[in-house]
Give the backbone structure.
Amino acid sequence: MATQKPTEHPIWTATLDLPPPPEAQMREQLAFVGLGEAAKRQMYLDGEPLLANAADWVAAAYDHLSRFAPTAKALGWEGRIPEDELYLRRTFFSGWIGRTIGVDTSDEFARYLFHAGRVHAGYGPDHHFVPPEWVSLSLTLVLRMFSSVVPAERLGLWTSYLGVQQEIMRAGFEAAMELEKGRTAVRVDALGLARPALPEPLEIRIPQGGTALEAVLKLLAFRPELRDVALEPVPDAEEHAGWMEQVTRWRFKPRWALLKNGRDVAYLEGLATRLKSGDTLTFLPPGR
């Protein structure tokens, strides 16, 4: 008698609802505040005076952060400030302020800002958690610095631009915070061509009795780099208040596999496979 073939549930048959990637969020928000090419041309007029002050502002910003007790504590700077860490942070800040003065609205800059949000949530090299209020207030200090050289008629443009940046950083921060919600802790890693998008294993928490889908959605919201290599967009439409609105959903590219403790979930319950603490999910691309 012939053996029955196991029921297969390949992951690429599922359609995923994910937040827009950072660059799409940034484009939409820039359009909302009216910061298009004409506005950017006006802001370019402020480039020279802003650059003339930028180095002093970087030094002043970190002097303030190190002297104010709550931010010094958040950065791990109570007592002596490590010179190498201070140098790296000032280098990062200098790069950011230079791109900001240049009114960078590129897709790559949106990813940079999203990553900054993840770093503030404790997912950077030093694992320091910076409360979001200090990030927001630091941007207001930058705006105050800008206001000393930017004419009043253009200051609103810079306020809008920095506000959009804050929202993209907040999205990265919140995606990181979602990883820590839930009682069930699972490990997620990636192999082969997917590894550069997830170079280190990551712990994700999901509700007790949660599924592989819940872990996957959290991971892909947190690591848009993995979405780039593993997913393809699916144009769709949904009704809102009697109108049909175009939306983008996502699905895995064909022949991608997701392993639970080394076993392909296609031969379990697919993305509905339930997980328990200590399980490992592994993304495995075709061609390895």
Observations:
- The radius of gyration is 22 Å.
- The chain is about 50% helix and 15% strand.
- The beta strands are 184-190, 202-206, 231-240, 243-252, 257-260, 263-264, 280-284.
